[in-house]
Amino acid sequence: RLADAVTPLWRLPYQEQLQVKYESQRKVLQTLASRLQELGVDVQKPGELCCPLRPVVPSPVINGYRNKSTFSVNRGPDGNRKTVGLYVGTGRARNIVCVRADHVKNVPSKHKQVAQCYEEFIRRSPLDSCILFHEGGHWRELVVRTTSHGHTMAIVTFHPQQLGQEALATQKALLKEFFASGPGAGCALTSLYFQESTMTRCSHEQSPFQLLYGEPHIFEDLLGLKFRISPDAFFQVNTSGAEVLYRAVGELSQADGDTVLLDVCCGTGTIGLSLAHHVSKVIGIEIVEKAIEDARWNAAFNGISNCEFHSGKAEAVLPQLLSSWEDTRPLVAVVNPSRAGIHYRVVRAIRNCKAIRRLLYISCKPEGEAMRNFLELCCPPDPGKKLVGEPFAPVLAIPFDLFPHTVHCELVLLFSR
Known about the structure:
The chain is an alpha/beta fold. It is built from ten helices and 16 strands. It is globular, with a radius of gyration of 23 Å.
């Protein structure tokens, strides 16, 4: 069943789901402790955790919490190539099918409605779906984003293949008409975007998001602030869960009126902006240019003037920023990377900056690449790798359940030195 593939814990009572996640985070910390011992770092008791682990903080909303869903277009169980839904199966076993998201508990009904309308639209279209690029076809995935304001943004990805500008314009007009005044009008979209994409994932720079209809942005409230969201900007997928997480980050950072907060991988600036009134300055770094535009707009709109945002790869921006750091104010770093973790040069810049005594690492996959980062932050100095700064030590771990019904959660690890 699709629900078992996408949300494997959905049958368990919520308290039991939290217990499953607690055990998996315990294993992560046990692994970290033993890996650190191998590196000669003195950890607590052998076989124990490297730092205290608090219980998993529950999500305020358990069902339909996702504010963003990505729907694929592929063969359905009945063989129809124009099925819009989520994947079941594996590429290795070659048994992938696309199944409608009707019974998936973490996807809100609004997302399911838009996905169903999109399916209806492409099934009426004479153009085929694009399942494998080299086999032709055009209609590709759909992303739906919603906010608590009732805003809905839909982004349709389309492979142009050999179509000319006129044929493309026709498809865009048909799509717009369908959602603006046709059968899809019931979705009441705030924004309808179209992206011509010749590869799996395109950034706005590689292939611009074209607004076919409605407003360029949707808006969300978080911790009393208003945030603007662009089509490709990162925003935590569980808004009420993110509020709980960011409040805790504020407390753990122990930032006060004298502190400078360094927000690495800052997205639309949510963490930095939500803590801006507690600190003297926020410096945000983010690779997605549109997200930085959003972050700057968010700061201005909310009347926050002590934030600066830098667009670019953290491994290019941060070493430059920190190597010339002469500010005497305490510097606290918050790192919130994708599953890929942070680049080695980012770790090195943080370790080699004496001003950073506290570091909060927020990881959505602590057993993955983040583990490598934890070890790089805590290992003994290694002049060969230019890791000369004093090592950090893990102090406290708190898991936050931002993804009920799935096996994932966000782990916040506090390091200090």
